[in-house]
Specification:
500 residues, alpha/beta, globular
């Protein structure tokens, strides 16, 4: 069974990679040199002629990789496509800066960075002088405003948009796309359309895109804020809108990557099961008696309530990443408090034989290099630049004690399901309580909650396989602590403390 599962996972991984790489066939993908050093990528279809430039900008905590479905689809359609990492994001070593509370602060700086990318792309020999902007979420407002500045845009595609800069006739040729399940932003899309025609409905075209006066709102079915980036409806609508705006009739494949990415990641996680079976088996040492239900309840709920209350009066900014300082303290204090209880109840006895260190290292290498490598290639930036290493190290000081305690409390995957769910939900509730106690300062913690949930689902499953095989829940906890620190360290945008 172990060999069969390993073979099946490898086949799915190979097929997924083959399909995902096929989206790049016929394209030349190279770095784009941008004034100021902004990391950018240029996508060109081989053998195509001069064409309009499309500048693609990601949302908050995103990166170029997240926008690749649009970049590949539009490049295959013959457009000159430039995608980049905003300051503070992805591989961009320059932190976000400026006053986030004013349009002339951070937003203006992001517009200027977008403009530099646009000028670099327009200077390419294949550019025909026409320009479109495409932006998601945070970048939707940036591209709307930038299209009215210099260099101006002839068309704008705003995905998951919220922008106060939209009027009845500006920006020109505006397509607004939202996911059906992001209800408020779907309403904003229709609202922007009805500025031009109060009677219009989603899907209708108002005005004439060929004359620079078109507007349309598209609601992509059954997707949310991230899923909209993989929606075939959204990808086709974007290409068709640019064709209508520039008088083109494009052809080429649409990069429908979501299903293959999901298959790749699930198969990679699945590969961890047969690999875990090659780890040394539990030695048969006497098992510790399981904690009574009352103690489990206390160990789960006491830190969840006490940690947010203890940290609420303090505001510490050391790491150059939004809310990371608080998160380090929350994770670390939460983990140490739980470990203290486990030590007091005798649950740490025998948990740290010498072999846990190389097993923990193997878990970390698999999570960061293998699964992380797949994420970096096809989903989002996962390989950090040098400036992020200190952030990862700082986050590890909190993440490792937290996941060490989590692993032992859940018995490395052997505990009953109610116990595992209780422990994980209590922690998520603890972060929610922290935000409620200081909403203005910790609002951005809400952004990482989906990352934490996904981490528990994927990596928690892997940790359970390691724990059940080795009988050492501490090994999986320590290894996954490094993986969590890495994942958060490359996700959070970097910022100049003076900007906040």
């Amino acid at each position: 069974m172990r060999r069969l599962i390993a073979l099946l996972c490898l086949v799915v991984i190979g097929l997924s990679v083959w399909q995902l790489e096929a989206d790049r066939a016929g394209l030349t993908i190279t770095p784009l040199q941008v004034e100021g050093g902004t990391p950018a990528t240029l996508f060109l279809r081989d053998g195509a002629g001069a064409a309009p430039v499309v500048v693609i900008a990601h949302g908050f905590a995103g990166s170029r990789q997240l926008m690749e479905p649009f970049a590949l689809t539009l490049a295959q359609a013959g457009y000159v496509v430039a995608s980049f990492d905003f300051e503070g994001h992805g591989r961009n070593p320059r932190p976000m800066s400026g006053d986030v509370s004013t349009i002339d602060g951070t937003t203006r700086l992001l517009m200027e960075e977008t403009a530099r990318v646009a000028r670099a792309a327009l200077a390419h020999p294949r550019a025909d002088g026409r320009l479109a902007y495409l932006g998601h979420s945070m970048a939707s407002d940036v591209v709307v405003r930038q299209s009215l500045d210099s260099p101006p845009g002839d068309a704008v595609i705003a995905i998951s948009m919220f922008s106060e800069a939209v009027s009845a006739d500006a920006p020109p040729n505006l397509l607004v796309i939202a996911g059906e399940w992001e209800t408020m932003l779907a309403e904003e899309a229709v609202k922007a359309l009805r500025l031009a025609d109060p009677q219009a409905s989603a899907g209708e075209v108002v005005g004439d895109p060929a004359q620079g006066a078109g507007r349309r709102a598209v609601i992509a079915p059954m997707v949310e804020h991230v899923g909209v980036l993989y929606s075939a409806t959204a990808l086709n609508a974007a290409r068709d809108w640019l064709d209508a705006s520039f008088g083109r009739d494009s052809s080429g494949p649409v990069a429908q990557r979501g299903g293959w990415i999901a298959a790749l990641l699930l198969a990679t996680v699945g590969l961890a099961w047969p690999l875990a079976r090659w780890l040394p088996a539990e030695t048969g040492r006497p098992a510790l008696p399981p904690l009574p239900a009352g103690r489990v309840l206390f160990a789960a709920l006491a830190p969840a309530l006490l940690v947010p209350l203890a940290l609420a009066p303090f505001e510490i900014r050391v790491l150059p990443v939004l809310v990371a300082d608080y998160l380090v303290l929350h994770l670390g204090l939460y983990g140490l408090m739980t470990l203290a209880l486990l030590w007091y109840w005798g649950q740490l006895h025998g948990q740290f034989p010498k072999r846990i260190w190389w097993i923990a290292a193997a878990v970390a290498i698999f999570g960061i290099a293998v699964l992380g490598g797949a994420i970096d290639r096809y989903v989002a930036s996962f390989l950090p630049h040098a400036g992020r290493m200190v952030i990862i190290a700082g986050l590890a000081l909190g993440a490792m004690p937290f996941l060490l305690a989590d692993g032992i409390l859940t018995e490395g995957g052997k505990a009953r399901l109610w116990r595992v769910v209780l422990v994980r939900v209590a922690f998520l509730g603890s972060l929610g309580l922290a935000v409620a106690l200081n909403f203005s300062a910790l609002f951005f913690l809400l952004i990482i909650l989906p990352v934490i949930v996904l981490f528990f689902l994927l990596f928690g499953t892997m940790s359970g396989w390691v724990g059940r095989r080795t009988g050492l829940p501490a090994a999986g906890g320590l290894g996954l602590g490094l993986v969590l620190a890495w994942a958060l360290g490359v996700t959070f945008p970097m910022f100049d403390a003076a900007a906040f």
